[in-house]
Amino acid sequence: MNATTAAPSRTYDHVARVIRNRYIRETARPNPSWAEIASWMVQSIRPTAPPNTWRSYRNAIKAQSRDLEVADILSCPPVGGMRVAPSSKAYRSTELTSAQLRTLSDWISGRVTELGDQAILWLRATMYTGLRPVEWMSARLVTLEGGQFGVRCNTAKAREHRVLAQRTVPLTHLTEDQISEINQMLASLAPLNGDTDAFAVHYERISGFIRRCARSCFGEAGPRPTIYSGRHQFKSNCLAAGLSDAEIAVLMGHMVRKTQGKYGHLNPVSALGAPRPLQDELQAFMAMGPESPLPPENP
Questions:
Q1: Is 223 helix (H, G, I), strand (E, B) or coil?
Q2: pLDDT tens digits for range 56-99
Q3: How is the chain split into domains, by residue range?
Q4: How many CB atoms lie within 10 A of CB 281?
């Protein structure tokens, strides 16, 4: 083998190892076959990969496997994703409006991918409830007084004495179809059975997929939604509904000061409305006393 052919071979070896390790990390399936990796690539990488990137990945796996079945699986052409620029907070949209969600949903629905429906469901459910991603692991549907439904979860940042350890987000502002979507979200997480590691892998897959799709859908030059954008939009909807800082803090699991400074602005484009917190939770929050001078944290 001469130097000209050796260099591409080494590059393909490296790329194939990276793809294999990513497959194992995102699927939690050790010792995959090249055919399994190829099928996963078509579902999870191809919809958002730029054309040259897809061709490079495809050639690397074909060179490693030297298998006709793998070559056949990877024979599909690229779908024309955009070049990915380095991520920057300046390009992250702080809200997720209905118009953005529709645009992203339409873009994803035009591509065949196993994560598309789950990603859109996660974005919708977060916009409806304002839950942090990790809080979905403990979330459950509860029946409230008067037969209404709510979502109850463990507050992720309950180390602060000004934050309720558990909180409830009433679903009084949602339609039956939207509550059904909440049920679907909870059902999709049920197989994880509270396994923290499995949840982390699942979250990373969904979050990464949304990030890649948003870059391809909205471009590199402007704000684009992330998995957290639904939570910002929930805050915006609460402001539009006229909720007080204390009410929003209870619903979002924040101290009042942090709620004022971290999240959305008056941007009620989603037209979802917002719930009022349960009175007993609001009273318990107000009874906690003045805020302590805790250092600010990430949301």
A1: coil
A2: 888 899 988 888 888 888 888 776 544 433 344 444 556 677 77
A3: 3-73, 89-286
A4: 19
CATH of domain 89-286: 1.10.443
**The whole model's pTM is what?**
0.66
Cα–Cα distance between 202 and 198 in angstroms, integer?
Answer: 6
What is the phi/psi pair of residue 287, to 5°?
-75, -5
Burial environment of residue 71 by CB neighbours within 10 A (0 to 12, 13 to 18, 19 or more): middle
- The Cα–Cα gap between 217 and 85 comes to 13
Low-confidence ranges of the chain (pLDDT < 70): 1-10, 79-95, 112, 157-162, 221-222, 256-272, 289-299
Tokens of 65: 């496997």
Q: Could you count the other beta carbons within 10 Å of the beta carbon of residue 90? A: 7
The predicted pLDDT at position 181 comes to: 95
Contact 49, 57 (CB under 8 A): yes
Beta bridge partners of 152: 140, 168
In contact, 192 and 137? CB cutoff 8 Å: yes
